[in-house]
């Protein structure tokens, strides 16, 4: 199965990388960009064939390694 | 409007960051992880209210700044 994980900073956590992108876009002449937030996107190929078990495993991976749950949220989607 | 951009490495391009995650997951006892690819996920808040114009602007942002189109693909989704 394939798992797609989005790791994003929680609301209220400063995102200097997003701000840098926003300023760079401004310098390049793109106006009307009110806010930019950058997160991580991780694709995993899993040997597991049961969707529920795969989701549970990826949930544990997020908590233990992929996301810093103090400042980051994660979202998991499992595909066949 | 809100734009969500996924920037991923093209197939065939080595992804050392993904490999590092894969090995770290193995060290933590997660077996059955066949492959890991890491990409970027960028959320933009745009002042533009026309979806077609917003998509066109984000397309240009991707080409000029957000993605290195030699080695990376990008996917854009626009939300109301």
UniProtKB/TrEMBL annotation, chains A, B:
Enzyme class name: ligase
Keywords, sorted A to Z: ATP-binding, Cytoplasm, Ligase, Nucleotide-binding, Purine biosynthesis
Annotated pathway: Purine metabolism; IMP biosynthesis via de novo pathway; 5-amino-1-(5-phospho-D-ribosyl)imidazole from N(2)-formyl-N(1)-(5-phospho-D-ribosyl)glycinamide: step 1/2
GO biological process: 'de novo' IMP biosynthetic process
Molecular function terms from GO: ATP binding; phosphoribosylformylglycinamidine synthase activity
Domain of life: Bacteria
GO cellular component: cytoplasm
Signal peptide: none
Keyword ATP-binding: yes
Function: Part of the phosphoribosylformylglycinamidine synthase complex involved in the purines biosynthetic pathway. Catalyzes the ATP-dependent conversion of formylglycinamide ribonucleotide (FGAR) and glutamine to yield formylglycinamidine ribonucleotide (FGAM) and glutamate. The FGAM synthase complex is composed of three subunits. PurQ produces an ammonia molecule by converting glutamine to glutamate. PurL transfers the ammonia molecule to FGAR to form FGAM in an ATP-dependent manner.
Protein name, entry field: Phosphoribosylformylglycinamidine synthase subunit PurS
Naturally occurring in which organism (per UniProt): Novispirillum itersonii (Aquaspirillum itersonii)
């Amino acid at each position: 199965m394939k798992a797609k994980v989005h790791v994003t900073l929680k609301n209220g956590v400063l995102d200097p990388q997003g701000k840098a992108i926003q300023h760079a876009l401004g310098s390049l002449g793109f106006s009307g960009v009110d806010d930019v937030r950058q997160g991580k996107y991780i694709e995993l190929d899993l040997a597991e064939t049961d969707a529920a078990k795969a989701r549970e495993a990826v949930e544990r991976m997020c908590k233990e390694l992929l996301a810093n749950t103090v400042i980051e949220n994660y979202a998991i989607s499992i595909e066949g």
